[in-house]
Design goal:
The protein is an alpha+beta fold and 406 residues long. Helices cover 32% and strands 25% of the residues. It folds into 3 domains: 108 residues, Rossmann fold (3-Layer(aba) Sandwich), CATH 3.40.50.20; 62 residues, Dna Ligase, domain 1 (2-Layer Sandwich), CATH 3.30.1490.20; 194 residues, 2-Layer Sandwich (D-amino Acid Aminotransferase, Chain A, domain 1), CATH 3.30.470. Strands 13-12-9-10-11-14-16-15 form an 8-stranded antiparallel β-sheet, sandwiched between helices. Strands 3-2-1-4 form a 4-stranded parallel β-sheet, with helices on both faces. The protein starts with 6 loop residues before the first strand and ends in a 13-residue tail after the last helix.
Amino acid sequence: MSNESPLTFLCLASYAKGHQFLQQARRQNCKVLLLTSESLKYSGEWPSDIADDIFYMPDTQKEWNLSDMLAGVCHLARHAHFDRIIALDDFDLEKAALLREHLRTPGLGESATRFFRDKLAMRMKARENGIRVPAFTGTANYIAITRFLENTPAPWVLKPRLLAGSMGIKKSSHAQEMWNHIHTLGDQQSYFVLERFVPGDIFHVDSIWQGGKMLYAISSAYGTPPLEVSSGGGIFTTSTVERDSEIDLALREMNQEVLTAFNLRDGVSHTEFIRAHEDGALYFLETSARVGGAHIADLIESATGINMWAEWANVEVAAARATEYQLPPIHSQAAGLLVSLARQEWPDTSSFHEPELVWRMDKRHHVGFIVRSQEHSRVAELLATYVDRVRSEYHASAPPRERPTE
């Protein structure tokens, strides 16, 4: 344990995630207070030693009352100074920003958080900084929508501004059908962004930042695009891109441009880009100030040895103590991830036993694997074989009601 004076971290998690962040912060001599959803209190998701104390918020319909949250945290603040307030999930970023603004705690405030949560805000900020994005418009104004649909080639996608990943997206090639989608939104209409759908290959870059500098980044390529997985119940795959290849260098450079423009200071990010089929150009899609979901952190750890959750905690501790963060030793191998819904409640995957298999999922109605090799071609070969096997032996397109994959 560090000999530094203890820090106090207040961590927000409306869903059960970020365990490795919490554990690493405690190893770094931090007092960790966890604010989470009351529905998780008896779920077994939070071990008793995960934090120094755990507090619960009523979460009727999965939402917290922000006034009650603010009052409760201010009550805690009477006897505790929060050195950092950390949102462990996308859906907690606004909550953390509200608390930081009110208590004047370092970190992203409410306006800055918009660039990491609001799909309209991040597109406008990127465009203002000369970063290529698909054509888009806000949906508050009918004239703007009409002009967009008349002047922008179909198909189009209607995206919730504040949901993660591909959740809630509607795609259409017909103007009247898109107008029908928009009219059904009622008073929620302004909470969406309308965008040209650009067919292409989708990539993600996961990176570590301190003091406004990108210290490390790794790029990966999705197999089936996430939108197709979420809407069609497909099989999710992603695999690391060959280090220092042309596309890897381009992705990491664009990632640095985006997050520098968005002024990410300390923390981690998961950012998505698309390489358009029509012109081969890279376009920015969206970013976040968190660790990537859908077991992407496990993929990165398998490929590099870097645990993004633990390193995020190390960055936050270093920033709070005004010390320099040091990257851990890094190895670079190719790795690929597959995750699928399964029709079996507890699938038996023991028949998958290749030496490159380094991780397998143990979750109800799911199958998942990570494979690792020195050769990218071997990872691609294994993923293709596994997709075929999973599709025929396990895959289910009608899942039990669970939170969608990010």
